[in-house]
Amino acid sequence: MNGWNRDGSGQVKVSPVLDWKTATPLNEDTNVFLRLEFGVGHDLESVSAFQFSLTAEQAKALSQQLANEAEKQVSLRSRRPGENPVK
Question: What are the structural domain ranges in the chain?
Answer without folding.
Answer: 17-79
